Known about the structure:
The complex is a heterodimer of chains A (318) and B (286). Chain A is mainly α. Chain A has 14 helices and no strands. Helix content of chain A is 77%, strand content 0%. Chain B has a single domain, classed as MetI-like (MetI-like fold), CATH 1.10.3720. Residues 1-15 of chain B have low confidence and may be disordered. Chain B: InterPro entries: BP-dependent_transpt_permease (IPR050366), MetI-like (IPR000515), MetI-like_sf (IPR035906), OppC_N (IPR025966). Chain B: Pfam families: BPD_transp_1, OppC_N. Chain B: This is Peptide/nickel transport system permease protein.
Amino acid sequence: MLAYTLTRLLYLALVLVVMSVLIFLVTQAMPGDVASMIAGQFASPEVVQAISVKLGLDQPLIVQYGRWAAGILHGDLGRSLVLEQPIAPILMEALARSLVLAVVALTVVAVAGIGLGVLAAVRRGKLTDQMVSGISYLGIAVPDFFWAIVLVLVFGSYMKLLPTGGYTPVAEGVLPWAAHLVLPVVTLVLMLLARIARLTRSSMIDVLQTNYVKFARAKGMPESVVILRHALKNALLPTITVLAIDFGLILGGVVVIETIFSYPGMGRLLLFAIQRHDLPLIQATILVVSAAYCLANLVADLLYAFVNPKIRHGMRTA
Amino acid sequence: MTAASPAPRRLSSRRSALPVSLVVGLVLLAPLLVAAFAGSWIAPYPYDEMNIMSRLQPPGPEFWFGTDEFGRDVFSRTLVGTGSSLLMGVAATALSLMAGVPLGLIAGYKGGRAGEAIMRAMDVLMSFPPILLGILVLAVTPPAQWKAIVAIGIVYVPQVVRLARAITLELMQEEFITAARLRGESAAYILFHEILPNIWPPLAVEASLRVVFAILLGASLSFIGMGAQPPSSDWGLMIAEARPFVEQAPWIALCPGFALAIAVIGINLLGDGLRALLDPRNTGSH
């Protein structure tokens, strides 16, 4: 297990290096010249030239990459051109807000998705099962931004129950803070619930047919104990993996949802950076979000390996 | 799910007739296909005809699904947008197949260094969250729809490569491949005449489901302004344009939203049906 973890960590480090090179090269190809942006619209060519020498932009790409990468390793993500501030604090703040969104949404998805999946598996073929499938189908049939608009319309504009967007810090009261989270969280849940519910249902159905469960029933265990203690514990393996992957997906994929709800997280920061051609900010946000995504995937693999006895006991299949 | 467990999808397979999900999927998709090809002829109004006198009209006999902020007919725009939205999904999937299948075949058949290099490159691509990879590709140059299609195609190449490689590896164990090798057939002959005909059924199933993701990703990219560009008509773009007016005129967003839902449900059902028909092994996995 330790060897497996170390190999995977090493591999992650390699992937991150390659990713950072890719991100660096792609952002270099983007329109917009850092030096002329800093100098302003009316600066003379000499001024632009001086700035680019000062920032080292006239040096070969590999030197520039080296300086950028070294900065990141020291926790320095560079300066935003548009905001004219160091990027690291802005980014951390946005990341924290996106993390809150992701954690709350994932908790709801886990509880509701596993619950619905078990319910559907136990009542397989009956009305409950079909209703669960129907509801989960609805969630994936329509893109998340459409759900977001419908939710804003119903709960924000018509019923006036919830704020339709924005964000208030916890310091200004827990209730307004939570109220701003409700609609984005519900949208994310609708998007992710279906997969978790269907996955739990199908692995639950598999496990319920094993001799192990039949034996537990034959011993005269109450049905609730059989389902919760014997079956569910074994059926959760694939679900846990997908939940961890979803966590990464939320972090990366919230661009659209954060935009609709004007939630100041990573996704909106990235879109802002792209619209304003803020190259250092684009590089930093994409790198951090992608790293978080990779990390979530790694955690998923490790969790799977940890829970799965075949891998835990020495069989090192990557 | 293993083959031993009884098929949970009682409606499909078993009978020799077409799977129900396939038929229902086709029925849902048929009008969309008609709209995709003939949308601009069927549409009651030109999709870009502006009319200041009839801005933000609610649905009625004159405009079936109302009008938008420029007085353009929402129903006509949705009809014409069908082609754009479906095209994005289908073309992007086709691109990822065209790039992914050969790579997967090589990785599976040759193995060795080349195979390893291909798979590691795919790992890097898959390390980016899908929409971010799309944005990264698109942010380089001014947005255009064809660029979005290429970006979505790139996003889904790794999945195609992995699947094609896995099936190729499985097929390599089969006796008819060994026989072909012993006969001294060339690698190209084996790849194109022996392996390719056998990997398309699972690939077709995969592709049909992949189209759904591609359509949704395309709509998302259009929604954030990186896909189809105004004044063209595209469902994702329409929903984006409808946002500021959603309180006064919710129908502008609802019409393309429902169209998207029909497309996604239809293609999902079609994929499920195809799976039951072509790839009975995997029937029943979620």
